[in-house]
Each structure stands twice: as structure tokens, then as C-alpha cells.
Amino acid sequence: MMIQHKSNKFNSFHENNMFLNTRKDSKSNSSLQPVFLQTHSFYVFIFILLIGSLSGCVSHKKAKLRERQLETVISTARSYIGTPYKWGGVNRSGMDCSGLLFVSFKSAGMDIPRTSAMQSEGGGKVKFRKLRPGDLVFFAMGRKRRKITHVGLVTEVRGNNDVRFIHASSSLGVIETNIHTDYYTKKFRKARRYF
Predict the structure, then answer these.
(1) pTM as predicted
(2) What is d(CA 82, CA 111) in angstroms, rounded to the nearest whole number?
(3) Which of 32, 90, 146, 189 has its CA 20 to 30 A from that of 13?
(4) Do 122 and 192 meet the contact criterion of CB atoms below 8 Å apart?
(5) Any residues with CB less than 8 A from the CB of 173 and at least 6 apart, and which?
(6) Euclidean distance between CA atoms 185 and 126, whole angstroms
(7) 86 close to 95: Cβ distance less than 8 angstroms
(8) Count of CB atoms situated within 10 Å of the CB of 195
(9) Based on the number of CB atoms within 10 Å of its own CB, is 101 exposed (0-12), middle (13-18) or buried (19 or more)?
């Protein structure tokens, strides 16, 4: 009997102790909950930072690639300076205006349409006063004032009235000249940006 009594005391003590532990655990869990939320928020914040920096790296790499492509396009076009004009030509024995750009963009791994009319439909719109290197400039050289018949590539912006572009002139071959002349500004129709 005495043993029985002791075991009952032990059991009731054990049950009470479990109850206290449970209460302590529930209290400690509730006090840990804000810490958990803070830790969770911290990891979410770190995750967002990592994603942001990765996307920043990707956009930086894209910008660098575009910059290299632009340099390649312009240097390739300039390498043809002095090449005679030839309708439909795409090599050093003869080059036409859209062929010059087609070949130059191809050298940078970029595909653009072959004709000036089709090239004038690609890329994004650019205002005449906002021209920058890499922009394509289009002209109507024939009798029809709205029909695109000529294209060039902006190579350098030296000032408000000095914007250089390279093109294959039917009379002079591949040359680089300032677009701000009466002749070219009157014939200018639009500009497109592929970069």
C-alpha cells in the first residue's frame, strides 16, 4: 500500500510537471513567434536582395553585350568606307545602302531586313533631335516624297548640328557625313533604333 501511495504521488507530480512544462513551452513558443517572424522576414529580405542583384547582373550583361554589338556594327560599316556603290551589292567590290547595314549588323550577330523600306519598319521610333550612335536614318531620295529609298547608320554625335552617319551614296560610294546639311535634312523621313 505504501508503494501504491508513493506511485500515486509520483504520477500526480509527474502530471503536474508535464502541465507546467506544457505551459512553459506554450509561453516560450509564443515568445519565440515574433523572433521566428523576424528571422523569416530577414530571409525573405535576403532572397529579394539576391533576386534583385541577379536581375541587375543580367541587365548589366545585356547592356555590355549591346555596347559590344554597337561597336562591331559601326567599325564594320566604317571598314567599307571607299567601297563603290553597287545596287544589290553586299561586299567590298560594291555595296548599296541597305546592304551596308545588313552586313554590318550581321557581323555583330544581329539579323535585320535586307531592304531600306523593310529596315525602316523595325526597331523603335526616334526623334531627329534624339539621334545617337547605332540609330538608322531613312531618306526619300526619289520623286515620291514619302517612299523610303535610302538608309544610313548614325556613327557619332559631335553636337546639336553635327551628327555623323555612314551610308552608301550612289555617286560617292560608302562615305561618312554630317546629316545636318540642307540636302539630307530635306530628304530625311524617319529614324529607327535597333539598340
Answers:
(1) 0.71
(2) 24
(3) 32
(4) yes
(5) 82, 83, 84, 85, 95
(6) 15
(7) yes
(8) 16
(9) buried
- Residue 78 makes CB contacts below 8 A (sequence gap 6+) with 155, 166, 176
**Residue among 165, 102, 99 at smallest CA distance from 137:** 165
Q: Do 137 and 165 form a contact (C-beta atoms < 8 A)?
A: yes
Exposure class string for 137-155: b at 16+ Cβ within 10 A, else e? bbbbbeeeeeebbbbbbbb
pLDDT digits (tens, 9 = 90+) for 64-114: 999 999 999 999 999 999 999 999 999 999 999 999 999 999 999 999 999
What pLDDT digit, counting tens, does each position of 125-148 carry?
999 999 999 999 999 998 888 899
Tell me whether residue 105 is exposed, middle or buried, using C-beta atoms within 10 angstroms of its C-beta: 0 to 12, 13 to 18, 19 or more. buried
CA-closest candidate to residue 178, choices 157, 158, 162, 160: 162
Instruction: Give tens-digit pLDDT for 21-75.
Output: 444 444 445 555 555 456 667 676 666 766 666 666 778 888 899 999 999 999 9
